[in-house]
Specification:
326 residues; alpha/beta; Arginase, Chain A; 11 helices; binds manganese (II) ion
Length: 326
């Protein structure tokens, strides 16, 4: 019997019904969260973007096309929704133009989720939302490892004197002690920079940086090995900026960079990250208004689907007591 209660597509067509992620139950009531393993969370905030706005419509766009996905994972030969109870708790309150109050709302909800052993799976939103997520999770788990797939390091110091933007959050996360840079890795960096030393600035914070120019010489398995050996069994947050992919694969995003990887290669890496101690995930920077035929939104939805499998494969070290009870 499935734990997640997704309607069968052979009974109810996939294009029908209210749009939650994969037509999962909508569960905004926090008193029900202790019975949950993974909570899909919409983070519709985009006023920290440095170029195109529009990611506030990412969560609804991802949910819309996610109804196409079937629950069983072909790579893992597993239906993760049978193993875990997954719900969609709806959108958190994002306040356009007020990043600190938005961070507070995200951080509070993420802390509450972590406190009852729920793994949040965030749908962005521009990348600034990850700082709110990390604040809430680190308040419960302590400093985290970070797996960060992105064309950009997002470790610049400021934009226009603003310290909190979608391009500066991981420098702030280091300064706030939310992550352990020397157990964290940034994957996929490419494109033009402001300064030749930009990637080195991220490395001097302690991050391992694996740029796209190196990844293309590797097998997906080797990339996954590099990520896993960096993180070990630390509690880890996996953040995935959709601009990691080539714009031909993911055009609906705010700061695209040419010369990126295909959806196939990126998914091949992600699928090989099972066995880590994941405490949260997000997929961010999806802009439906710039998308073509929903392909970016479908890719983001598919990543979220793969994250559920990774949650099911992860060693339930930190929540083993409650996992047994669930
Ligand atoms: Mn980013
Ligand atoms: Mn980016």
């Amino acid at each position: 019997m499935s734990k997640s209660r997704i309607p069968s597509a052979t009974q109810s067509p996939r294009f029908s019904g209210i749009r939650t992620f994969m037509r999962l139950p909508y569960e905004p009531d926090s008193s029900q969260w202790p019975n949950t393993d993974v909570a899909v969370v919409g983070l519709p905030f985009d006023t920290a973007a440095s170029f195109r706005p529009g990611a506030r419509f990412g969560p609804s766009g991802i949910r819309d096309i996610s109804t196409l996905l079937r629950p069983s994972n072909q790579f893992h030969k597993m239906n993760a929704f049978d193993k875990l109870r997954v719900v969609d708790i709806g959108d958190l309150t994002a306040i356009p133009g007020d990043i600190q109050r938005t961070f507070d709302n995200i951080s509070t909800a993420y802390h509450d989720l972590a406190a009852v052993s729920v793994i949040p799976l965030g749908l962005g939103g521009d990348h600034s939302v990850s700082l709110g997520e990390l604040r809430g999770l680190a308040a419960h788990h302590g400093p985290l490892s970070l797996i960060h797939f992105d064309a950009h390091c997002d470790t610049w110091d400021n934009y226009w004197g603003l310290k909190y933007t979608h391009g500066t959050i991981f420098r702030r996360a280091c300064e706030e002690g939310l992550i352990i840079p020397d157990r964290s890795i940034q994957v996929g960096m490419r494109g033009t920079e402001y300064d030749p030393a930009d990637l080195d600035a991220s490395r001097s914070l302690g991050f391992e940086v694996l740029p796209t120019v190196d990844i293309v010489k590797m097998e997906a398995e080797a990339v996954a090995r590099a990520v896993k050996s960096r993180v070990g069994q630390n509690p880890v947050f996996f953040t995935f900026d959709i601009d990691f992919f080539d714009p031909s694969q993911a055009p609906g995003t705010g700061t695209p960079e040419v010369g990126g990887l295909t959806s196939l290669f990126g998914l091949e890496i992600v699928r090989r990250l099972g066995g880590l101690n994941f405490v949260g995930f997000d997929v961010v920077e999806v802009l439906p208004a710039h998308d073509v035929a929903q392909i970016t939104q479908l890719l983001a939805a598919t990543l979220a689907f793969e994250f559920v499998a990774l949650a099911a494969l992860g060693p339930p070290v930190w929540n083993s007591a409650s996992a047994t009870a669930k």
